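Q: Sequence in, structure out?
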Amino acid sequence: MITILAGGRDTLKILSGMRCILDDHQVTVICSTADGRWGPSGLSLPGIDGVIYLYAGILNERAWQGIDGDTLVTANALERIGHPEYPASGDRARALHIMRSLLLDEGCSLTQVVIDGAVGYHVEASILPVADSIPETLVSTDTGDSLTLPDYHEVYGAERQAHGCSLILRRPPPATDTALQAVRDADVVILGPGNPVTSIVPILACKGMHDALNRAKVIAYAPYTRERAAMWREKRYESPEHVTLPLLGGYADIIIADTKDPAIIDGSLRMDTRTDTKRQRESHAWDLLATARSLTCKGRL
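A: Exactly. Output:
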């Protein structure tokens, strides 16, 4: 059993490659809730929604977000009557937002709501929120902006990698017992690739997650981005040639670095991490699972 922490397009590409090798039921994905936003149709959780769409076979893999072939009839109508939606949601994507609102109003936990949404799409992988609440977050960029995490994603879009940023996470929520148990039960835990500040930190900061990871076999990706200059509280990515990764907290048994990464990262395993094509995604998945097998003697991967 493999448990993957993180989210975003890079992790979706990793999961896409792994689906060529592993049965879906062998994978658990734990996602941050820090990107959650309440909109006209209810609660949007883009990171979680993307994983559900991927395993449901309906993800728009050209943009690595949203539902393939979805329309914007409702969003366009809202704009015409003077109430534009920010960001615009697809018509089919609204189904999960509405369902969440209804179940949350009935008293269901966010974990149960996410599980029910995945079941509704006949998803066999286990998809979990790391917490049962939406934490208060503020992203400060090197351009002087201070934005909520959803606003940061919307305003900077594809330019996110070009800017250093730090994350202020007010009152980190406790990780759910379900998420912590998924980490404890995993043969290997993978900290997925992606923006460390906006994808990884909101998960690692949840109460209880650090201790759970300390007891697990962990593979972590060294972020190959300018975000190495980002700060998280007193911890800092360093941008010189020799890079340390204090954010990983010492619990990473293996750190994967890209073969073309110019930085010197002590003890890292160099790997071709390109995932732009289907062949690259599948090839990287084979390499990743071979690495995972090297950490466990259970033989269940």
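Residues 278-293 form the longest helix (16 residues).
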